[in-house]
Specification:
Elements (H helix, E strand, L loop, with lengths): L2 H17 L24 E3 L1 H9 L3 H12 L5 E7 L3 E6 L3 H12 L18 H13 L19 H5 L1 H10 L19 H22 L12 H8 L1 H10 L3 H18 L13 H24 L8
Antiparallel strand pairs: 1-3, 2-3
């Protein structure tokens, strides 16, 4: 179950609680889910009960208990717990990782990306224009002449000096109040974050080619012990949405670095070694690696940066 699907599941629980008269509230248009905070439990958490408590005329813990009884019946959810003042903590059922990977592979690089976003030109100096165009791809709606409050690019000829891809990364990966960092972006080294992200994407495709040579393909049929990579892939839709909502493309850049680092640490386990025969575990690891590659490709496309298959 992806974060977006889980968000819809929690919202549907609110709808059912309203329909059966257990709660008298206006159903929110969206419900946020996030990783549990310190002291929380399970895979995901939601503060929706705290948001609804005042309108419902009940304590947040009571509201969470009502929603929890509905959520316990939802497919894909193994356990619901209420912690703190009324946080819903959700543990997904076994097989959720495979479901996530299947969903990502079915959508490809479009996974987590807004469906209705339209690229549009933005006015202003170089960095203003790049930020405005990128935010539009993410689904944010900055007006063409709206000032975005970013520190200007140090060099209006940045693309001519670095190339389009490195220039865009420099302009987008630094926070709005920071000067873009341009040093080292053309160096093929792990210290270069742009190289690391694009290299991880290329490695995902290299693993697919290696598996094909060994006679097997990706198939998420078994659990894979890779919590960091699984979480990074699952977090992608929320990372894109948060970057758009906060008008902060740099947040997405950091997320892509997290995905890349997790994939590069995981890649060595994917293909059989020596006389080892391809197994369900290898097919499932490859599927997770391909899902991570799709996330990297989609994220880079939002930045207008190419994702080479060979690097």
């Amino acid at each position: 179950m992806t974060p977006a699907e889980l968000s819809r599941t929690v919202r549907h629980a609110v709808c059912r609680a309203v329909e059966d008269g257990a709660l008298r509230v206006a159903v929110p248009e969206t419900v946020q889910v996030e990783r549990p905070r310190p002291g929380g439990r399970g895979h995901w958490a939601s503060n929706v009960a705290l948001r609804l408590a005042r309108e419902a005329g009940r304590s947040a813990a009571e509201v969470a208990g009502i929603l929890g009884r509905h959520l316990e019946q939802a497919p894909g959810i193994a356990r619901v717990e209420v912690t703190g003042p009324g946080f819903l903590n959700l543990t997904l059922a076994d097989g959720s990782q495979q479901t996530l990977v299947r969903s990502v592979l079915a959508q490809g690089p479009a996974y987590g990306l807004p469906s209705a976003a339209e690229p549009r030109a933005h006015d202003g100096e170089l960095r203003e224009r790049v930020w405005g165009e990128t935010l539009a791809r993410m689904g944010a709606r900055p007006a063409p002449g709206e000032r975005l409050g970013v520190v200007p690019a140090p060099d209006q000829e940045l693309a001519a000096r670095l190339g389009a891809d490195a220039a865009r990364w420099a302009l987008l990966a630094a926070a709005a109040h920071d000067r873009p960092r341009t040093q080292g972006l053309l160096v093929q080294h792990e210290r270069n974050p742009l190289f690391r992200v694009r290299y991880a994407h290329a490695r995902a495709h290299a693993l697919t080619r290696g598996a094909r040579a060994l006679g097997f393909a990706a198939e998420p049929v078994a659990p894979v012990d890779a919590p960091a990579l699984t979480s990074a892939v699952a977090d992608h839709p929320a990372a894109v949405a948060d970057a758009a909502r906060l008008r902060a493309p740099d947040r997405l850049a950091r997320h892509l670095e997290t995905v890349a680092d997790a994939l590069l640490s995981f890649q060595h386990t994917v293909l059989p070694v020596g006389d080892e025969k391809p197994s369900a575990a290898h097919r499932s690891r490859l599927a997770l690696a391909e899902a991570a590659g799709a996330v990297l490709a989609g994220g880079l496309s939002l930045f207008g940066i190419s994702a080479p298959l060979h690097l």
